[in-house]
Design goal:
two-stranded antiparallel sheet; DNA-binding; 222 residues; 2 strands; homodimer; mainly alpha
DNA sequence: TCGGAGTGATACGGATACGTTTCGCAACAA
DNA sequence: TTGTTGCGAAACGTATCCGTATCACTCCGA
């Protein structure tokens, strides 16, 4: 490493232990430092291939050579920028997007249904869904993947938690409702179907969950 | 195989495509056919080692040699009885026990709390818990593991579902309650904490879940 | 006692993946 | 244009695991 002038992305983005001469690099809005567009292209292609491999063969069976072959790049291009499998997987997961849009208007029931339908769509079919088993497996083996995974999941959950919490405070939901437990009770069944029960996931499930579980203050008995 | 007189456990227990001379073998209550106690001992030791390996390194990274070393047996002893990794893992998972005892008396609230506390204990720490990520991963890669996993989980779930259903029918729980959704809402959060959120699992969580989610007919507003 | 069967150890050839190195080519910045 | 740099391809030695085969030993049932 000390004799190389190439950029190790992981070092740059996570530890800042190497910084190219500030006068010679451009810093874009997303915080990446690139001189040569070939680098960014390789990075994107490789990380996409990592996610595809993780979805196909899982964490334990994923190999650098398999990723290189899938990405259509040389093995050396991967080793040039990442120390090993672990850091590669970490970076790959960081590119996963699972954004949830919260409607600004409407009843709490309809707003929660909307968000939960997005969750159902995401879990039913997405890059994230395909990688979930591999992500759970990798989290079990490596603490830094675990940290990332937990932070990722908790941030997604926070969107729904704050929505529920504000509805409790405004009186739309029954007082005494624990927002975090309620959110887990809404989202948990969807994940269970995907990971444990092997049952299909539809948008209708989102509606059923909300109507069964949401403790509406106006109609406490359903 | 056709020249061997040894017993392939998988064949015997799953496909019945080989049956030793009935006059020379003993059939015990659990349906296993054994002449030589060495066989049963090997089987037990090996399958225990498989579960330990699965918990430690996961499905993709588990190797026959690793299992043999851990079990303290020769590799040949494993290959003598199982065709390969897949069948070995399937048999290993079949030995996992996760029984739930349902109290016969008490309020529905207390009975559900009792069962859910058992679930929490199981998910917090058990052989099953240790193997869950590997089981989820293996289910994703192989249909027969998936079938087993889904059946296993669904049978456990059925215990709680029937408990809830009978409470709905007896009027203890609010009419209109969907037993399956409610059970998933109770159990799902526990699995989420274990697999996704990385949060601790305590018995207190079982109580909180029940008191937040159980739609008691007598006190519909909690 | 005795023959048969299961056992652990060991070795094998083949395959795969590791991480490194070298090399000529093409894309890049200046 | 020119020097630099990232690139893909290939080969390298090492290590691991595959699935099979052999062997001497020991345990078992008859």
């Amino acid at each position: 490493m000390s004799t190389s002038t190439s950029i190790n992305w992981r070092s740059v983005t996570r530890e800042n232990d190497f910084m190219p001469d500030a006068a010679t690099v451009a810093t874009d809005a997303s915080g990446s430092f690139e001189q040569d567009p070939r680098v960014e292209r390789s990075r994107r292609i490789i990380l996409e291939a990592v996610l595809a491999e993780l979805g196909d063969v899982g964490y334990g069976s994923m190999t650098i050579e398999g990723v290189a072959a899938r990405a259509g790049v040389g093995k050396s291009t991967i080793y040039r920028h990442w120390p090993g499998k672990l850091e590669l997987v970490e970076d790959a997961f960081r590119t996963v997007k699972a954004e949830l849009a919260v409607p600004e208007h409407g009843s709490i029931r309809d707003r929660v249904v909307s968000v939960l339908e997005q969750v159902a769509d995401l879990v039913a079919e997405s890059t994230y869904s395909a990688c979930m088993p591999a992500l759970i497996e990798a989290s079990e083996r490596d603490p830094s993947v675990r940290d990332f995974h937990c932070r990722f999941s908790t941030e997604r959950r926070a969107v729904l938690v704050s929505l529920i919490r504000s509805a409790v405070e405004s009186g739309e939901l029954r007082a005494g409702t624990d927002p975090e437990i309620l959110v887990d009770a809404l989202v948990g069944p969807i994940l269970m179907r995907r990971l444990i029960l092997g049952l299909p996931i539809t948008r209708a499930i989102a509606t059923e969950l909300v109507d069964q579980l949401l403790p509406l203050a106006s109609t406490p008995a359903g």
